[in-house]
Amino acid sequence: MTTDGKSEEQQPGQQPDAAKNTENNQPGPIPYERFKEVNDQYKAMKSQLDALQQEKEKRDKDAKEAEEKRLESQKEFETLANERKTQLDKANETITTYKAELEAQTAVLSQLYESRKSLVPEMYQPLLDEMNLIKRLEWIAANESKLKPASNGTNGIPHTPNPKGTGDLTPDQRRAKAKSTW
After folding, report:
1. For 111, what's the count of Cα atoms within 13 Å in the CB-facing half-sphere?
2. d(CA 81, CA 138)
3. pLDDT digits (tens, 9 = 90+) for 64-78
4. How far is CA 87 from the centre of its chain?
5. Structure pTM?
6. 25: burial class by Cβ within 10 Å (0-12, 13-18, 19+)?
7. For the packed helices 32-117 and 133-142, what is the interaxial angle rounded to 10 degrees?
8. How many CA atoms lie within 13 A of 96 on its CB side?
9. How many CA atoms lie within 13 A of 173 on its CB side?
10. Residue boundaries of the structural domains of the chain
11. Cα separation of 84 and 78, whole Å?
12. Are the beta carbons of 28 and 18 closer than 8 angstroms?
């Protein structure tokens, strides 16, 4: 070192090392404070990056677990949907069976109505035609005694009534009465 505080290498006619290095496109010496500042920033950024990566990994893991749970619940819903589909298929089969039975019963009731329709006078026919099949049959059943022709004679003509007091007797009672009169 020299007395003026400069190193021996630095003579008054010489350039400092930093100037030499810049001419050769090489960086010069870095002051410690600047080095420490940059290094501290690097360490802070690295710790932030590590924290963000950990957070991202945690979110990815949570998302994967949520997706697995969703798939599991979807499988449960799928099982539930399959059970409901089976129940629906059974119900549809039952409905089809009941519809077939209903059609068969309606056909039988229609035949019954057609056979009983002849009992109804022509003036009542338009009224019955406005009713549904069940109501028609109910009306005929309710009024059947009024509609029946006399069945105890031929061609709808009734027999001659029995003499007074004999119509209610059984054949055995009539024989007993006949014996008592002789």
Report:
1. 5
2. 45
3. 899 888 888 788 888
4. 11
5. 0.39
6. exposed
7. 40
8. 6
9. 6
10. 29-113, 118-148
11. 10
12. yes
